[in-house]
Amino acid sequence: MTTAKDLVLTSTEGGVTTVTMNRPEALNALSAGLRNRLTEVFTDLAEDSATEVIVFTGNGRAFTVGLDLKELGGETAAATVVNKDLGKAMLQVNKPIIGAINGYAITGGFELALMCDFMLASEQAKFADTHARVGVVPGWGLSQRLPRLIGINRAKELSLTGNFLDAATAYTWGLVNRVVAADELLATAQQLAKDIVSTEPVTRNAVRHIMDAGWHTSLTEGLVIERDANREHAKTEVRAEKVAARRAQIQQRGRSQSDD
Q1: ∠43-56-142 over CA atoms, to 5°?
Q2: How is 189-207 classified by DSSP, letter by letter?
Q3: Which CATH code for domain 4-197?
Q4: 3-state SS of 141-153?
């Protein structure tokens, strides 16, 4: 018997927690149960000291195809009511989220992908915004985030047509950072997550914060945010010896990579 916990699988190793939507038979459609469970997971991860970075993916052929239309249309009964705010939980987790987009990311699924700090895509990934086709106005930020990532003209093309965007074009347009073979996607995302974990946490959180804050404002205001954060960070306990130790680690890592 499938339980609520089965809908989302999690595993944690070395500061990296992988969150996997697990309704492959329904292309990970966001049923009420799945949305509630995802919200619980992200809310818990916000307070989980063992989690520094999150990798977010789906099981099977889809990341997620968005809201469960059969459930919305009454063809199947919802196992529960939606009583939690998934978008808010993702935004307030306050830890880097890497989207490992393994397959279809459609409408609400596209919106969840856009809430990630950055995305990697399987060569099998496909994106589509079908809000205008199903008669729903975006509510999780797609209309604002997508134009900022790929430009307003391209965003309008996607959102006004509802057409699919393949992984290669998504990379060319700057939507995803990398396109990798399907069997390498999770390992690549997890390695990047480990690279993030290896950085100094106070500093990386400050950098992430000012990037996000600046992205939501003008360049002039963003530079002021960055300056103020720089001055505030200088007061923290990142002492000289800690900086020196980090510098040595970086130098050693550079030597190791150049030898590969």
Answers
A1: 85
A2: HHHHHHHHHTS-HHHHHHH
A3: 3.90.226.10
A4: CHHHHHHHHHCHH
- Tell me how far CA of residue 145 lies from CA of 89, 107, 175, 239, in angstroms: 17, 13, 10, 37
Between the alpha carbon of residue 232 and those of residues 96, 207, 228, 229, 241, the distances in Å are: 21, 12, 6, 5, 19
Which residues, given as ranges, of the chain have pLDDT below 70? 1-2, 73-83, 237-251, 253-260
pLDDT tens readout for residues 56-91? 999 999 999 998 877 876 666 556 666 678 999 999
> Quick one: pLDDT at residue 40?
96
What 3-state class would DSSP assign to 16?
A: strand
What six digits make up the tokens of 45? 């991860």
pTM above 0.70, yes or no: yes
Q: Which residues of 7-19 are buried (b: 16+ CB within 10 A; e: fewer)?
A: bbeeeeeebbbbb
227 CB burial (10 A radius; 0-12, 13-18, 19+): exposed
The two three-digit tokens of residue 18, written as one number: 């992988």
Structure tokens at 77: 């009964």
The tokens describing 224, both together, are 């002021």
C-alpha separations of 127 from 42, 142, 156, 169 in Å = 23, 12, 14, 10
- The radius of gyration computed from the CA coordinates of the chain, to the nearest angstrom, equals 19
d(CA 164, CA 171) in angstroms, rounded, equals 14
